[in-house]
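Entry type: protein chain
Record version: 2
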Amino acid sequence: MRWLASTWLKRLGQRLGFTLIEIMVVVGIVALLVAIAIPTSQKVMDMARWRSASRIYLGNLRLARTIALTGAGRAAGFGGGTGTGAVTDQIRFAGVRLLSPQSYAVFVDEDNISGNGNESFVKVQSVLDKDLSTTITFTPIAGNGEVRFDRKGMAVLNAPYSTRIRIQDMRASRQYTVAVSAAGAARLEE
């Protein structure tokens, strides 16, 4: 019995570490898992950024409609003929205008004439990342990329059809379409 215990202890003493092959196998497995996880997490982050941009745009359309309905721009100090944001009772329209493929603005207006100086930006939103690169773009499908709401909350359209904006992730070829009906209802369509 003593001999068996001493033989077992000798073998155990010789086998206290890992072999180089075992360590290399473990490192290879970890590297493989990391190689799979990084691109997957990047796709998930891109999809989350795209969905977030779409929902924020939809939320800003609803903000513009609420401002038009309630005249809340007056109370918040938005509006004025000089574009300075001076308080006025003349806010008759509010809306969202595409400024570039990666940015748009929520605005209030005294009249229904675009670009005549009676507009003030309430909020400017951009989808550019910190490094100024993005794959998310806003493109008008129907209309000119501007949605205006009157004091009744109705969309002021340049044509009898609804305004449609495509929000697209160029990297993955995914897109949402934001549709605004004449009644002022805005919705996301995949």
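Comment: The CA atoms of residues 66 and 176 lie 23 Å apart.
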